Amino acid sequence: MQCIEYLMESEDEATRLEMKTDCRSVEAQALWAGLGPGMRVADICCGTGKTSACLNALVQPGGTVIGIDGSPERVAYAVDHYGGEGIEFRCRDIREPLEDLGLFDFVWVRFVLEYYRSTGFELVSHLSRIVKPGGVLCLIDLDHNCLCHYGIPPRLERTLFALVGMSEREADFDPYAGRRLYSHLYRLGYQEIDLFVEAHHLIFGDLEGKDSYNWAKKVEVASRKLGFDFAEYGGGVEEFKAEFKDFFSDPGRFTYSPLIRCRGRRPLDER
């Protein structure tokens, strides 16, 4: 049972997720959103479980975290690598009812809505049902995802925009998920809504290994899954990948993605 038809699914996805997840960023974002000791937390589409483990450290003593993901392979990895006191993992389709898991003080939805362009609000409304009255729902996602580069060759930029556009049409990917987060919580009547915008994928100067691997995998897997034809490249995908590598390895290039985090409190008295 799959959480979604996941665009980035591949045999190397666990490695990519592990490399790109920074516990310092997760902790800073979660503390900003109001996470604290003793809370019961749901980590939606938890992936390898690394983020769940970061959250679990912040709710001790006395807190618990349930990591939820639709991939049996990812859940098995999470149990093997991060299972332990205060933390457990469940394989569930997040589009289906989750109320049997009980209510949570804090529901964490990070880098999930970008895969639900056409049904983002409906999914947030659905997940809101497991937030206890007075509890916090935290939504975090990117805006202009994969599209903000300077110094990029025009042909390469056109191709990246075309690839992202195809992912919107064919895979329901949302490169602008971040800008919608406030509206989701506002429409649901959440209170004490707060929002913060920061840089993500802030890449300049010498390229770090984790960024090189992450971006190369994103381009490789997404283009293969979508069957993108790379019409401007006579040498096809290999010529495209070579040009992308040359651009991305240049210490003079600049790449970033805006990250938007939004949190709100479910009303105690809903009418």
Automatic annotation (TrEMBL):
<dbReference type="Pfam" id="PF08241">
    <property type="entry name" value="Methyltransf_11"/>
</dbReference>
<dbReference type="GO" id="GO:0008757">
    <property type="term" value="F:S-adenosylmethionine-dependent methyltransferase activity"/>
</dbReference>
<protein>
    <submittedName>
        <fullName>Methyltransferase type 11</fullName>
    </submittedName>
</protein>
<dbReference type="InterPro" id="IPR013216">
    <property type="entry name" value="Methyltransf_11"/>
</dbReference>
<keyword id="KW-0949">S-adenosyl-L-methionine</keyword>
<dbReference type="GO" id="GO:0032259">
    <property type="term" value="P:methylation"/>
</dbReference>
<dbReference type="InterPro" id="IPR029063">
    <property type="entry name" value="SAM-dependent_MTases_sf"/>
</dbReference>
<keyword id="KW-0489">Methyltransferase</keyword>
<keyword id="KW-0808">Transferase</keyword>
<feature type="domain" description="Methyltransferase type 11">
    <location>
        <begin position="43"/>
        <end position="138"/>
    </location>
</feature>
